[in-house]
Amino acid sequence: MWLGAKTRRGGRGGGQPSGLDRERITSVSVRLLDAEGLEKFSMRRLAAELNVTAMSVYWYVDTKDDLLELALDAAFGELRLPDPDAEDEDWREQLRALATEYRALLVRHPWLSPLAGRYLNIGPNSLDFSRVVQRVVRRTGLPPHGVMGAISAVFQFVYGYGTVEGHFSARISDTGLSADEYHQQAMAVVAESPETAEAVEESKDLLAARGGDTVAEMLDRDFTFALDLLVAGIEAMVARG
């Protein structure tokens, strides 16, 4: 999508449709993906939402993959990025902020995670995010050969955490329950089953020590602690020289 000059296409649909532009098409694509998921997304469904023919959409993009790349990059444009050159800001807090933003993005758009590895992901917003991450991690004091490994450690963790959390949130939404109601019902069923009750009993002290009165608080605490472990690991590697 992003390589070479890709402006409008006129080969399939004749003249340019009125009332459409690539920004509007992308915005509606993101909204449909949020509402209905990746599996149900189609050019025909998008055209119906835009109240145009599918051929009108093809005037602006060549394929469904083009649209998904546009939607993916538009989502990355929602990220609030710190200034990596701000001398009065600590790299640790900037890295935590980037990780927290990325996690929230994955939860907000569950369709994003399967697309992130499908495409090169070199749209302008994605590249802005990647550049800021790289520049922040360069400030840690790690040697150049360790920078990409540190980025992988932090953001592959965030990707996994946010992906699972996003799927979990979507599952809860389908049930019509709140996250806390779903958790309570699920744990009650698991605790009553002979096959799983023993595992639950063994974990009781860990769950109690975990803290948090709600599912959201528990997820936040786990995420924060895991991220602190990764930051501490970076600090330890810097200290080792």
UniProtKB/TrEMBL annotation:
Give UniProt keywords alphabetically: DNA-binding, Transcription, Transcription regulation
Q: Where is the composition biased (Basic residues)?
A: 1-11
> What Pfam families does this protein's entry cite?
TetR_C_1 (PF02909), TetR_N (PF00440)
TM annotation in the entry: none
Task: Output this protein's name.
Answer: TetR family transcriptional regulator
Q: Does the keyword DNA-binding apply?
A: yes
Q: Matching PROSITE patterns, A to Z?
A: HTH_TETR_2
At the highest ranks, the source species' classification is: Bacteria, Bacillati, Actinomycetota, Actinomycetes, Kitasatosporales
Q: Where is this region: Disordered?
A: 1-21
**DNA-binding span(s):** 42-61
Q: Which GO terms describe its biological process?
A: negative regulation of DNA-templated transcription
User: What SUPFAM superfamilies does the entry give?
Assistant: Homeodomain-like, Tetracyclin repressor-like, C-terminal domain
